[in-house]
Design a protein that fits this description.
By secondary structure, the chain is an alpha+beta fold. The protein is 39% helix and 11% strand. The chain is built from 5 helices and 4 strands. It has a 4-stranded mixed beta sheet, sandwiched between helices. Strand 3, helix 3 and strand 4 form a beta-alpha-beta unit. Helix 2 packs across helix 4. The two termini are 34 Å apart.
Length: 160
C-alpha cells in the first residue's frame, strides 16, 4: 500500500506526536487525582521517565501509546508501508520499555503499564489504579515534595 502523504508531510505528522502530556496520559492523571492519589510527573532520575510516580509507594505508571509501544490492539497495528523501518523501530521501543521496567524493579520500584486504548474507560483505569496502588490517601498523605512536581486538577484540565 502506498502512503497518501509526501515524505515531508509524513515527517511533520510524526514529529508532531508528543511524548508528554498526551490525551491518554492526562485522562489517567485526572482519574488518579480524583481518587485522591498524589504523584510526580516524568521523573528524569528514574529509568524510562515514568509518566506518573508515586514516591512513597515506590510505584510508577507508564501510559503508553498503542502504536508507538506495539500494543496488540487495532491501534497498535504496524503500517503496511515501510515495514523495514517500522518493525525494528517498534521492537526497539518495546525492548527499551522492558529494560526500563527491569531496571526499576532492580531499584525496588513496581510498575504498571496502562495503554492508550484503555484510557478511555474510566472504570477500568480506576480499578487498575486502585488494585495497583492500594487504597488512596494511605501512603501519600505524609509525603513532601520530591524531584518532580505535582499537578493540580486545574492545571490538568487547562493543558492542551
Amino acid at each position: 500500500m502506498t502512503d497518501t502523504r509526501t515524505p515531508e508531510q509524513r515527517r511533520r505528522i510524526m514529529q508532531s506526536v508528543g511524548q508528554k502530556d498526551t490525551g491518554p496520559e492526562l485522562a489517567v492523571r485526572r482519574v488518579a487525582h480524583a481518587l485522591g492519589y498524589r504523584f510526580r510527573l516524568h521523573r528524569k532520575d528514574l529509568p524510562g521517565r515514568p509518566d506518573l510516580v508515586f514516591p512513597s509507594r515506590k510505584k510508577v505508571v507508564f501510559v503508553h501509546g498503542c502504536f508507538w509501544h506495539g500494543h496488540g490492539c487495532p491501534k497498535g497495528q504496524l503500517p503496511k508501508s515501510r515495514p523495514e523501518f517500522w518493525v525494528p523501530k517498534i521492537e526497539g521501543n518495546k525492548e527499551r520499555d522492558h529494560r526500563a521496567q527491569a531496571k526499576l524493579s532492580e531499584l525496588g520500584w513496581e510498575s504498571l503499564t496502562l495503554w492508550q486504548c484503555e484510557a478511555k474507560n474510566v472504570e477500568a483505569v480506576t480499578a487498575k489504579l486502585v488494585d495497583f496502588l492500594g487504597p488512596p490517601g494511605t501512603a501519600e498523605a505524609s509525603t513532601g515534595v520530591s524531584a518532580g512536581h505535582s499537578v493540580s486538577v486545574d492545571e490538568q484540565t487547562h493543558r492542551h
